[in-house]
Specification:
By secondary structure, this protein is mainly α. Helix content is 68%, strand content 0%. α7 runs antiparallel to α8. It comes from Laceyella sediminis.
Length: 308
């Protein structure tokens, strides 16, 4: 102890850290969504998926302006011609411009998928939020309903719905949403049950906030991450299901065009005019792949366990 007292204070000097090293050790304070965006940008697959989605949406909206044809005018004198002049994708068996029909079909397929995903969110978030928040008997009854809905094959429900209603954009989207909201409800219920015992929820309840306000202002906004991830995976599933329904004759009916309708029509001429099948199939595959890449990237970016 005496030796320690006799040591000169000059022997103990704070380490000098250069400014560059100090900047490297310190991390700039960022918000949650800024942190999410930073992790998202570092994922090349997610950025590629988002870029392909934006490009597809732009082509679906503005692509038809590239030539002077439309998606339904028949020109039998140029039927079954491969790409020539301003027919960039050629023509089909009735002489209709494939460029126009592919991008019109992509727009119809995306519209159905977005509408079905929107209905999934509205029904699933409402059902799952109420079930998880109130718990007890309410949760037990609602979960039994959920199990019954989950046990019914969605293909059977969709086929019955489309046999009752004339196939169209809205009926197909509603038919897919009848059972499509169940996974969303399960995700939201699990997250709400985890969050409803947090201090900020108890504080809001103590201050007299209503059940609706607690759900809408405190719980649902904190479940947006899993909801966004579920939506990005629900959209490609809906696009694929719409194409499947159109391929078996239960989706959009000709002369309307969706990607599934185009693939179904082109399958008859596959061995003779394969290009009529290749173009819509490639666009469909790119859309599904890009949404899956985006969903994987969002899942990694929004998951707090991925934070460094």
């Amino acid at each position: 102890m005496e030796k320690a007292k006799n040591l000169s204070p000059d022997l103990f000097k704070p380490a000098q850290i250069e400014k560059k090293e100090q900047d490297a050790l310190s991390r700039k304070s960022v918000g949650y969504w800024q942190d999410v965006w930073g992790r998202f940008r570092s994922n090349l697959g997610a950025v590629l998926g988002l870029s392909l989605i934006v490009l597809t949406l732009l082509l679906a909206i503005f692509g038809p302006l590239a030539n002077n044809y439309d998606w339904q005018t028949q020109m039998l004198d140029v039927a079954n011609k491969e790409s020539f002049s301003d027919h960039y994708f050629g023509t089909d068996h009735l002489g209709r411009d494939m460029w126009q029909r592919v991008w019109y079909g992509a727009k119809i397929s995306l519209t159905i998928a977005f509408l079905a995903a929107f209905l999934d969110v509205v029904i699933g978030v409402t059902f799952g939020g109420i079930s998880g928040y109130f718990g007890g008997r309410v949760d037990m009854v609602m979960q039994r309903i959920l199990e019954v809905m989950y046990s019914i094959p969605n293909l059977i429900v969709i086929i019955l719905m489309l046999l009752i209603f004339d196939p169209g954009i809205v009926p197909v989207a509603i038919a897919m949403a009848i059972t499509g909201w169940v996974p969303m409800a399960r995700v939201v219920r699990a997250q709400v049950m985890k969050l409803k015992s947090q201090e900020y929820v108890l504080a809001a309840r103590t201050l007299g906030a209503s059940h609706a306000r607690i759900l809408l202002k405190h719980l649902i906004p904190n479940v947006m991450g899993p909801i966004i991830i579920a939506v990005t995976f629900a959209i490609p599933s809906a696009i694929f299901f719409e194409a499947f329904l159109a391929f078996i004759g239960l989706g959009i009916r000709p002369p309307e065009a969706s990607l599934g309708v185009l693939i179904n029509d082109a399958s008859t001429y596959l061995q003779i005019f394969p290009y009529q099948l290749i173009y819509p199939s490639v666009v469909l595959s790119i859309i599904i792949l890009s949404f899956n890449l985006l969903g994987d990237g969002l899942r990694d970016a929004l998951d707090p366990r991925m934070r460094k």
